[in-house]
Write a sequence for this structure.
């Protein structure tokens, strides 16, 4: 491409970057989940098939420079909040360096990370120093044997040590994400709450979504938001459970709804529920996902994607901005996740960007 052409294409038309990123339902998109790798060091049964999924070739994974170029375009369009995810994002080599580069992008004022915690002992302090503000750590059980079973071999001791390292590193908030699975960890929800509350962390419970064409869904294991609330309430006798306002103290940028239990003698205890199935939040969805290869997914529940890497290579920032606007313009009204394990995308979570 000639320099003149590159310059012309890299300069979005005036006005192109000042209109907010709004879809057909007038939902404003300002939150990007960015997958930095499709690889994971766990194989959670509800997330990845036992024999894994086909991995991207190294050359198909966006370079740091490409990630920064794409995020700069999102930031120009009003995206303010970024969450790094995967796969397992801490497996991406030199992740703190990428965090620093993303932090330097004008307009990005909140940077969070989702992790399984296995590498936090080494990485919590460098990631905090590089500019990660908030952390979500996945933890489906505190019991070593159970944890190893659901993650197919994970060591919960390493995750717990990682959470301690994260607490010492001084993140603004640490949330503990638990996928709620009937018959697996439903008897442990109160213990997971106590673990988090004793450390000043916020526990959050996620309804299982039928990803990968329902291939990972085990009938009878779905646990919905109302049951999760009832189980936690039953473990706190005498405590009133109240819905928190959308801008309450635990609120983040994502879809969790928060609840407060006023426990006599102990004060307020907060927990979140992410309920894409029984109490879905599609009408307020403010986020999109960028896969590790640069595919923009505007809804987790569908396979549709726009190749932003190709747009960047072919037409620079202006083409990326045009492609983002077109994709948001076609953002689906909602997903069709069903309670019986159908209705989700053909892709697995790690291929879209959890
Ligand atoms: N590896 C990182 C982690 O563990 O947080 C980031 C990626 S992981 C896919 C993000 C979150 O998605 C985790 O909390 C995981 O438990 C959750 N998750 C994966 N598959 C899911 C499913 N089918 N339904 C609900 N949550 C799921």
């Amino acid at each position: 491409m000639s320099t003149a052409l590159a310059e012309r294409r890299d300069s979005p038309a005036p006005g192109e970057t000042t209109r907010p990123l709004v879809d057909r339902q007038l939902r404003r998109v300002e939150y990007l989940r960015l997958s930095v790798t499709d690889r994971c060091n766990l194989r959670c049964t509800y997330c990845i098939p036992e024999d894994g999924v086909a991995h991207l070739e190294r050359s198909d994974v966006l370079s740091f420079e490409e990630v920064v170029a794409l995020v700069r375009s999102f930031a120009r369009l009003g995206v303010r909040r970024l969450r790094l995810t995967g796969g397992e994002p801490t497996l991406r080599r030199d992740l703190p360096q990428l965090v620093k580069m993303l932090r330097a992008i004008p307009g990005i004022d909140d940077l969070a990370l989702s992790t399984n915690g296995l590498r936090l002992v080494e990485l919590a302090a460098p990631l905090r120093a590089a500019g990660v503000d908030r952390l979500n750590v996945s933890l489906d059980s505190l019991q070593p044997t159970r944890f190893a079973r659901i993650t197919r071999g994970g060591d919960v001791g390493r995750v717990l040590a990682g959470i301690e390292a994260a607490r010492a590193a001084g993140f603004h908030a640490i949330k503990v994400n638990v996928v709620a699975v009937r018959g697996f960890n439903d008897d442990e929800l109160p213990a997971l709450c106590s673990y988090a509350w004793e450390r000043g962390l916020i526990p959050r419970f996620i309804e299982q979504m039928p990803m990968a064409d329902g291939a990972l869904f085990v009938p009878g294991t779905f646990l919905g938001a109302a049951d999760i609330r009832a189980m936690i309430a039953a473990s706190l006798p005498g405590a009133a459970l109240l819905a928190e306002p959308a801008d309450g103290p635990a609120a983040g940028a994502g879809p969790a709804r928060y609840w407060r239990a006023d426990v006599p003698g102990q004060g307020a205890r907060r927990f979140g529920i992410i309920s894409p199935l029984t109490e879905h939040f599609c009408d307020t969805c403010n986020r999109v996902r960028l896969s590790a290869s640069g595919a923009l997914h505007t809804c987790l529940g569908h396979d549709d994607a726009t190749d932003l890497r190709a747009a960047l290579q072919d037409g620079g920032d202006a083409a990326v901005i045009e492609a983002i606007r077109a994709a948001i313009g076609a953002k689906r009204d909602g997903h069709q996740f069903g309670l019986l394990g159908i209705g989700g995308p053909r892709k697995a979570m790690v291929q879209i960007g959890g």
Remarks:
- The longest strand covers residues 173-180.
